[in-house]
């Protein structure tokens, strides 16, 4: 697709949209936008080779789950373009980043802004935890740790079929607490699956708070290398570094880019909520108003008009 | 004497997979135990060793399915759903991937004890939306299970027998078709898998004792043909006995009970199988006797149902043994 915006502009747009949504709805996955905006902007705006979306700009309502009686079932992958051998595929492994991913689709012209109005509304496909049928999603990843395995299987299959498109998995660092992540890395290395790459939002946060207070995971890079991956560690808000990492050769092995990020990047006022940042819900109207005023200023926009 | 067929799965899988290049053979470190070691050695390009990592294997298979492949996952039945249940749900069952779950050593066919015995697999699998559940009861069905499984438009779980297996049937496995093995009018007996052979043995003695048995063998456990079961149940005098290599909760006994209850059929039902208990490690004949899954247990249940003693004892059953089946079977090692 034609890039009408710079990746920096897309990233800023993601933060603004998620902030606006969070203000209006009195809560949201705000810190994920802070940490992952550059990564998702990078994926959609430049790193991935994706075709034009093939689903309506305004998402259709929920049309049922897959079953033998539901032949018209479609996943949300069509927002990433058609399945062609030369196009890349993307899985959003931490499905609770859906709000950020939807904002990215809007910023890159793949979904209409009205799509976000349907977020978490009954009967909508734009679900809070991204489902298969949600815009931009292709598989269920709501249970953390299963995304990389699925990506590895798809990548092996695509390689076997001679397809040139790659498989990319957007991951979160909390997933390394799950054993399956390590099973996936060792399998991808053992089977030489090198059309697979991942970028991991290492924001050191998880649902209960700072990861080190919940379960220490040691040095992720060393562990990934020991399990057979090629690893690049970067500042996850540094786009030139991200570009350079993506270019790292990884023949015969999967590539994992560890994007070290801040869960309050671009919204420094959020720091007062540390370490409970997984889902930001305002405790008082005063706090909400202060967040609105201060963060809007940081993002260079007017405070959001919201109903109380 | 019944013919014993050695390792029918090994040949059937190789024959079928070679004719279908989108079929892949996956194994979780139980390759020879699932009779696919020869396939691995002769066709390594169609074989993926996934190691002892079932969670990854299930999701990886989902990814292969997404790429249009039809992976056959080989391991013991328990290992396909207990640890990787979440992956089974999210990566395989929900999206209806054409993943073929080949579960070896169903129920008490392993001396491996609790950790190896899939005693609730049918209960688990049949409650999963989009899942088909098949079970093999003889060599002919094992020979047919590969093609039958691959005919399913979605995921399928199969209880597969291995090693030396008696040939009881001379018509192929047909998905959705139950086998009517006898059409008596006193009692309906419903079996599947290894319990069918036990019921055939019991029938011989019951016939001689004047009890007329209607015997159904199920190869397809889901979808469950409730209408046909009800037709047969309606045609017998005393009631129904189910005999399964599984817990009575959630398996064939439950399916029959649900069908009868929903139809308002006021007939007695006796469910034989594991009665809300784990089993332990031991030989198959020992376990079948100990937990009441054998021909003698069936005879006693039918006596309870009819209210008549048949005089059948172990010796009488021994005389009607359909063959010296298990004397030829290899030691049931892992």
UniProtKB/TrEMBL annotation, chain A:
Swiss-Prot/TrEMBL cofactor(s): thiamine diphosphate
Where on the tree of life does the source sit, at the highest rank? Bacteria
Looking at the keywords, is Acetylation present?
no
The record's InterPro entries line, in alphabetical order, gives: THDP-binding, Transketolase_N
Which keywords belong to this entry? Thiamine pyrophosphate
Any one Pfam family match given in the protein's UniProt record, by short name: Transketolase_N
The Transketolase N-terminal domain sits at 88-261
What PANTHER family does the annotation carry?
A: TRANSKETOLASE N-TERMINAL SECTION-RELATED
- Give the family from UniProt: Belongs to the transketolase family.
Identification of the protein by name: Transketolase
Species name for this entry?
A: Albidovulum denitrificans
Automatic annotation (TrEMBL), chain B:
Name of the molecule in the record:
Transketolase
Q: Does this entry carry the keyword Glycosyltransferase?
A: no
Q: Which domain of life is it from?
A: Bacteria
Q: Does the keyword Cytoplasm apply?
A: no
Keywords on record: Thiamine pyrophosphate
Concerning Pfam families, the annotation shows: Transket_pyr, Transketolase_C
Cofactors that this protein relies on: thiamine diphosphate
InterPro entries documented for this protein: PDH/Transketolase (IPR051157), THDP-binding (IPR029061), Transketo_C/PFOR_II (IPR009014), Transketolase-like_Pyr-bd (IPR005475), Transketolase_C (IPR033248)
């Amino acid at each position: 697709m034609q890039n009408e915006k710079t990746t920096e502009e897309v990233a800023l747009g993601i933060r603004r949209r998620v902030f606006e949504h969070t203000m209006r709805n009195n809560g949201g996955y705000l810190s994920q936008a802070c940490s992952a905006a550059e990564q998702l902007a990078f994926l959609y705006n430049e790193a991935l080779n994706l075709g034009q979306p093939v689903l309506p700009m305004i998402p259709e309502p929920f049309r049922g789950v897959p079953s033998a009686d539901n032949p018209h079932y479609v996943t949300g992958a069509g927002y990433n373009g058609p399945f062609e051998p030369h196009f890349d595929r993307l899985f959003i492994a931490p499905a609770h980043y859906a709000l950020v991913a939807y904002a990215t689709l809007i910023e890159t012209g793949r979904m209409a802004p009205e799509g976000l109005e349907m977020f978490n509304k009954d009967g909508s496909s734009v679900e809070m935890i991204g489902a298969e049928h949600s815009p931009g999603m292709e598989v269920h990843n709501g249970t953390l740790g299963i995304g990389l395995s699925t990506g590895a299987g798809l990548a092996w299959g695509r390689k076997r079929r001679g397809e040139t498109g790659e498989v990319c998995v957007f991951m979160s660092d909390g997933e390394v607490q799950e054993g399956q992540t390590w099973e996936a890395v060792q399998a991808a290395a053992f089977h030489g699956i090198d059309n697979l790459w991942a970028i991991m939002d290492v924001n050191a946060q998880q649902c209960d708070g700072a990861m080190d207070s919940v379960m220490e995971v040691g040095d992720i890079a060393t562990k990934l290398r020991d399990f057979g991956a090629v690893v690049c560690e970067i500042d996850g808000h540094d786009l030139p570094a991200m570009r350079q990492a993506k270019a790292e050769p990884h023949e015969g092995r999967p590539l994992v880019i560890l994007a070290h990020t801040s869960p309050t990047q671009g919204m420094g006022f959020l720091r007062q909520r540390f370490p409970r940042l997984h889902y930001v819900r305002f405790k008082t109207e005063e706090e909400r108003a202060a967040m609105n005023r201060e963060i809007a200023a940081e993002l260079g926009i007017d405070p959001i008009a919201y109903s109380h | 004497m019944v013919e014993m067929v050695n390792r029918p799965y090994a040949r059937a899988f190789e024959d079928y997979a070679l004719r279908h290049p989108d079929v892949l053979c996956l194994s979780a470190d139980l390759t020879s135990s699932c009779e696919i070691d020869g396939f691995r050695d002769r066709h390594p390009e169609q074989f993926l060793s996934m190691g002892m990592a079932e969670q990854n294997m299930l999701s990886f298979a989902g990814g292969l399915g997404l790429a249009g492949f039809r992976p056959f996952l080989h391991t013991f039945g328990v290992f396909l759903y207990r640890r990787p249940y979440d992956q089974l749900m999210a990566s395989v069952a929900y999206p209806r991937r054409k993943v073929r779950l080949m579960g070896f050593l169903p129920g008490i066919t392993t001396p491996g004890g609790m950790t190896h015995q899939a005693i609730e697999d049918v209960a688990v699998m049949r409650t999963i939306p989009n899942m088909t559940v098949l079970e093999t009861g003889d060599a002919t069905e094992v020979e047919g299970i590969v093609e039958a499984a691959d005919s399913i438009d979605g995921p399928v779980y199969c209880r597969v027998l291995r090693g030396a297996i008696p040939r009881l049937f001379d018509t192929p496995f047909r998905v959705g078709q139950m086998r009517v093995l006898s059409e008596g009018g006193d009692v309906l007996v419903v079996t599947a898998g290894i319990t069918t052979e036990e019921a055939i043995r019991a029938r011989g003695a019951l016939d001689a004792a004047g009890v007329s048995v209607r015997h159904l063998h199920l190869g397809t456990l889901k979808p469950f043909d409730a209408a046909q079961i009800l037709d047969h149940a309606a045609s017998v005098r005393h009631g129904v006995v189910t005999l399964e290599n599984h817990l009575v909760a959630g398996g064939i006994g439950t399916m029959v009970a649900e069908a009868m209850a929903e139809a308002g059929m006021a007939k007695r039902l006796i469910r034989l199988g594991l009665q809300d208990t784990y089993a332990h490690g031991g030989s198959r004949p020992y376990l079948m006797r100990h937990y009441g899954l054998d021909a003698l247990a069936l005879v006693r249940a039918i006596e309870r149902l009819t209210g008549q003693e048949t005089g059948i004892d172990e010796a009488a059953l021994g005389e009607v043994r359909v063959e010296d089946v298990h004397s030829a079977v290899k030691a049931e090692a892992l």
